[in-house]
């Protein structure tokens, strides 16, 4: 009976069966087209930018630094890299960047507090609580609301240490100080002379600055004079003419 079954012969022009890779490659091709279309559509672009916490820096300065603008690619823009760039800026202590679909980027920064002005020749340079000097952002003609650091010359390292101590003072204590100059002491090299808005001079060390300045509140209403807060506490009233 098997001899009666004719042998199978492939008909002329019959197509071979499709390769097992054809379907996956086709799907991959169309998926790539869809992704490319999506990335170039409005849904794949930055539409809303929210910046919070900036006082020293303008919004445009922040955007220029992290190279962000409306219409940029939402998915290609790196939020973690932007955080690193922002935290490298002298004005910023901490930065958080969040992306939320579709097209929204929220930037939250915590700037370092301005605690002093560094007198440099004929200009005033803002000094921050993190010890950084904003040499590219000179103070204008406004009256200073923070202490002026005068006669420090090139002692920027000592000035930075002092700024970090000033940053630990409450705002009301900081506002009582008008000027700080280097002091001279036979024992300690970090003594400073603090001039207050109440007509007093306070002498103390940089390393103990924020703790010892808290004691000044007990002497604030004394007559003009000098308060020594180095090894001991001593107040010397100002000598008046004829006394």
TrEMBL record:
This is Cell division protein FtsQ. It is found in: Membrane. It holds the Pfam family POTRA_1. GO terms for biological process: cell division. Residues 44-112 form the POTRA domain. One of its GO terms (cellular component) is plasma membrane. Its main location: membrane. The chain crosses the membrane at residues 20-39. Keywords: Cell cycle, Cell division, Cell membrane, Membrane, Transmembrane, Transmembrane helix. It comes from the Bacteria. InterPro entries: FtsQ_DivIB (IPR050487), POTRA (IPR034746), POTRA_FtsQ_type (IPR013685).
